[in-house]
UniProtKB/TrEMBL annotation:
Signal peptide: none annotated. It comes from the Bacteria. PANTHER family: BLR5325 PROTEIN, METHYLMALONYL-COA EPIMERASE. This is VOC family protein. It comes from Novosphingobium ovatum.
Length: 135
């Protein structure tokens, strides 16, 4: 089987500069590069935090995010990509930090199978953060 590693996740937003600011201020991503994709009519940026990257698209004339895509339990009822997820060491500490930064906390999960949360970026895109139990 061919070997591969994760490179990036992608999100579409209405305002590229606002998204670059949000991903930097709230999650600590730094701008790696900005570029224009003519075929998609997209002003685009790649932001990076360590080995993690997000590609942010601001496509001319794009439709807004449908309301159902903003809520995790409803979003999974529509086929397609759902979200990216990151591991955090301490969910409660992470939630406090996100609250202090004014992040839009969409959903918190505390179940026997694990715990985590979803936040929305400045355009409503869902991002999951998971605390894995000790092995």
């Amino acid at each position: 089987m061919a070997e591969f590693t994760f490179h990036h996740g992608g999100v579409s937003v209405p305002d590229l500069d606002a998204a670059i600011d949000w991903y930097g201020r709230v999650l600590g991503f730094a701008l790696e590069k900005k570029f224009y994709i003519a075929a998609a009519r997209s002003h685009t940026a790649m932001v990076k935090k360590g080995p993690l990257r997000f590609e942010i698209f601001a496509v001319e004339g794009a439709a807004p995010l449908p309301e159902d895509r903003r809520h995790p339990p409803r979003d999974v009822k529509t086929h397609g990509n759902k979200h990216v997820a990151f591991r955090v060491a301490d969910l409660d500490a992470f939630l406090v930090e996100m609250g202090e930064k004014g992040a839009d906390i969409a959903f918190v999960v505390r179940e026997s199978f694990g715990k985590g949360c979803f936040i929305r970026d400045c355009a409503g895109n869902l991002i999951e953060f998971v605390e894995e139990p000790d092995a």
